[in-house]
Amino acid sequence: MSSKSLLEGKNIHFQYGDEVIFDHFNFRINKGDRVVLKGDSGSGKTTLFRLILGFESLQQGDILFQGNSLKDPKTIRELRKNSAWLPQDLNIGTGFVNEVILFPFTFQAHKKNKPHQSKIESTLWDFGLNPDEILQKSFSELSTGQRQRVGLAITVMLNKPFILLDEPTSALDHDSKTKAANLLLNQNNRTVLSTSHDPFWVERCEKVIDLNQ
């Protein structure tokens, strides 16, 4: 693990109406860290992701990516180009599974990482999914656990140095959780920021940021 900061929050204040979500909140994530955000519902886990990705605007304070402020649109573009983001709601596309998998690679930032069909199939196998059975199914027909594993497979294939995962194991059985942890948390050149209520996942992350404190 490097001591060089990848992402740093400084004196963040954010609120919705009268509800204060963050008040003088600070955090630091170094390159190579595996970080998990813990906290009760409404403590700000998903809000922090939205601030980091530029979907919400900071009200006070700052977030720095590689030393540059996310208040600058160029920095937000650089962060998005170098990151893969898997939301909890799993509404990641429509159509056949093969189409959903390939859709993120139509964007300019991801085109160079577009996987060959053999890579798609091997990655699905890594997550315990049979490509012969699943690729020509409608994504909407999959179970919640299957959709989550497809989303995690896409995240791996995007091959980005920074990964953001919102409750990545919420719909997985123990075997699938183990596969996900091995594939996502054991790459030394990757920084992972996640949220989770799952003790299995939390125990495998080396740094915990408790938003209830």
Q: What would you say this structure looks like, in words?
A:
By secondary structure, this protein is an alpha/beta fold. The protein has helices spanning 45-52, 73-81, 97-102, 117-126, 131-134, 144-158, 174-185, 199-203, and strands spanning 5-16, 19-30, 34-38, 60-65, 68-69, 83-86, 162-166, 191-195, 207-210. Helix 4 packs across helix 6 (144-158). The strands form two sheets. The protein has a five-stranded parallel sheet, with helices on both faces. It contains eight helices and nine strands. The longest helix is centred in the last third of the chain and has 15 residues, at 144-158.
Brief write-up:
32% of the residues lie in helices and 26% in strands. With 213 residues, the chain is of the alpha/beta class. It is globular, with a radius of gyration of 17 Å.
Topology of this structure?
Blueprint: E1 5-16, E2 19-30, E3 34-38, H1 45-52, E4 60-65, E5 68-69, H2 73-81, E6 83-86, H3 97-102, H4 117-126, H5 131-134, H6 144-158, E7 162-166, H7 174-185, E8 191-195, H8 199-203, E9 207-210
Helix pairs in contact: 4-6
| Biggest sheet architecture | 5 strands, parallel
Portion in beta strands: 25-35%
List SSEs in N-to-C order.
EEEHEEHEHHHHEHEHE
Amount of helix:
25-40%
| Strand element count | 9
Judged by helices, strands and strand pairing, the structural class is alpha/beta
Main sheet: which strands, in order across? 6-7-8-3-9
Shape, principal axes of CA atoms: globular
Flag low-confidence runs: none
Total helical elements = 8
Average the pLDDT over all residues and give the rounded result. Answer: 92
Instruction: Please tell me how large the radius of gyration is.
Output: 17 Å
Separation of the first and last Cα atoms = 25 Å
